[in-house]
Amino acid sequence: MKRIALSLLVVMLILGFDNRESAPQQSDSTLNQNVKDMNSFISIFEIPATDISRAIGFYQSVLDIKIEKMEMPDLEIGVMPYEGQAVTGVIMKGEGFRPSADGVTIYLNGGDNLQVMLDKVEPNGGKILVPKTPHADESGFFALFLDSEGNKMGLHSPN
Fold first, then answer.
1. Could you give the C-alpha distances from 88 to 24, 35, 43, 131, 143, in angstroms and in order?
2. What pLDDT, on the 0 to 100 scale, is given for residue 17?
3. Start-end of H helices in the chain
4. How far apart are CA 23 and CA 1, in angstroms?
5. What is the mean pLDDT of residues 89-93?
6. Close Cβ partners of 91 (under 8 Å, ≥ 6 residues apart)
7. pTM of the full predicted structure?
8. Which superfamily, per CATH, for 2-14+41-157?
9. Using one digit for the tens of pLDDT, what is the confidence trace for 56-82?
């Protein structure tokens, strides 16, 4: 319960709180149109960490981005850039956040050619699990790796 409350707080802090209590109810056709207009089925993802500084350093280096570190009681957060993004990513260190190579795999945008990012994985403390590999349907390429915390992650790119 504490983790859910903290996650909700983080989401509200990152994206801002929008009070929709007075919003009119939407019809099924309006809801279906909203689904069609979505840029992504995912809105926020959390990457668990045991060492927030190490994890922030890993993702800053591999993705070539600036990650903002925030601290709250019992929770440390790394906020990935979110302006202009359809999906927001955060790195979380706190009770209930355990890195894992099992479960859901998040595929990060590897840009035009994921090999550029993949080449930064091992020098920054990660491990390549599957090298750059073409999709069977020739729709692009993917790779899998463990990050500095032991989370299994993927990369995807068109080339």
1. 27, 18, 6, 26, 21
2. 42
3. 2-15, 28-37, 52-63, 115-118
4. 28
5. 98
6. 46, 47, 48, 49, 52, 55, 56, 59, 67, 77, 78, 80
7. 0.79
8. 2,3-Dihydroxybiphenyl 1,2-Dioxygenase, domain 1 (3.10.180.10)
9. 999 999 999 999 999 999 999 999 999
